[in-house]
Amino acid sequence: MSEVEHTVGAARTPRDRWVEEGLRALADGGPDAVRVEALAKRLGVTKGGFYGYFADRDALLGAMLDTWEREATDEVIDRVARADGDARERITLAGMLTFSGDRLRPIDLAVRDWARRDGAVAERLRRVDNRRMELLREMIGSFCSDPDEVEARSLVAFCVAIGHHFLAADHEGRTRLEVLVRAGDLILDRPRERTEATPPPSHTEAPSPHAENPSSPPHADN
Fold first, then answer.
1. How far apart are CA 49 and CA 28, in angstroms?
2. How many CA atoms lie within 13 A of 176 on its CB side?
3. Secondary structure (3-state) at 21
4. Residues 177-189: tens digit of each pLDDT
């Protein structure tokens, strides 16, 4: 980068970079870590530039939540709708896009913690989770005709995807991934031999369009 380009870039930081850096701070330390002066330092600019894009810190927090909601719902649902494969494979893809890798998963967990103390964030989280449940109901309903069972399977799938990150238990000679894959077999009524040791191969590389690195296999925490 030339000296002129560096000077111009430092003088005017794009709005999206403030939002992105805010999301990183949120994922690392919660909403209290989202401080204008700290973000400016991480971006290598003065905090005065912030007010060219946002009226105040609350406006930034709102923009961050807008970005998270769009990526976690609209963009995931769009990619799943355009994906090849049957409903079971598309459910797996949706889970990978949302809860794998180093972008949406830590933001999602941070938003959940934030929602415990902020009613407006809790309402936003409810809206996001309702859309995710709608997607699960639609896809599970394509191979399960009992509406009560569809609801139960959708809930269990969602709880496994989120809850296993908070579980510290061991699995008696099995890895966490092996147990999660088997749980997926049961929830999705999938033949066990298809995924005996590893996840289905069709969507093992499904990075978020915003991720810098490809996503890891779904729920690969051991």
1. 23
2. 16
3. helix
4. 999 999 999 999 9
In this predicted model, what pLDDT tens digit does every residue of 10-31 receive, in sequence order? 444 589 999 999 999 999 999 9
**CA end-to-end span of the chain, whole Å?**
41
In angstroms and rounded to an integer, the radius of gyration of the C-alpha atoms of the chain is 20
Going by the DSSP 8-state scheme, the letter that residue 204 receives in this structure is S
Bin 172: left if φ > 0, else alpha if -120 < ψ < 50, else beta: left
- HSE-CB for 26 with a 13 A CA cutoff: 29
Please report which helix (H) or strand (E) contains residue 186, including its range.
helix 176-187
Q: What pLDDT does residue 49 have?
A: 87
107 contacts 68 by C-beta, under 8 angstroms: yes
Dump pLDDT digits (tens) for 162-182: 999 889 999 999 999 999 999
Instruction: Give 28-57 pLDDT, tens digit per residue.
Output: 999 999 999 999 999 999 888 899 999 999
Name the residue with tokens 């989120």: 162
96 vs 218, higher pLDDT: 96
The number of residues in the chain equals 222
Encoded tokens for 151:
């609801």
Helix (H) or strand (E) holding 3: helix 3-11
Residue 31 neighbours by CB distance under 10 Å: 19
Q: How far apart are CA 108 and CA 90, in angstroms?
A: 20
